[in-house]
Design brief:
mainly alpha, Chorismate Mutase Domain, subunit A, 3 helices, 0% strand, flat
Length: 89
């Protein structure tokens, strides 16, 4: 295996960990959705979304990551969370 293949293997392993973390986040999000349903709260909470995105932007900046790219990724993660919560009946 050459160096490039080794790096690609590392990327694949990291991608698997990222997916596992997203799945874990979705499980927590589903629990939140169940609680929202029980408390008759709306799925969308713009204030909370803004808090999450602001916190993530600060983390991205602190770690020298492109804030706009990370913000876009998290908007999609939040969208996925809301989709999961909407499935709860």
């Amino acid at each position: 295996m050459d160096v490039l293949d080794n790096y690609r293997l590392q990327i694949n392993e990291i991608d698997e960990e990222i997916i596992k973390l997203i799945l874990e986040r979705n499980k927590v999000s589903k629990n939140i959705g169940k609680l929202k349903l029980k408390l008759n709260l709306p799925i969308t909470n713009k204030v909370r979304e803004k808090e999450v995105l602001n916190r993530i932007r600060k983390l991205a900046k602190k770690n020298n990551l492109d804030e706009k790219s990370i913000n876009l990724i998290y908007k999609n993660i939040i969208k996925q969370s809301k989709l999961e919560q909407k499935k709860i009946k």
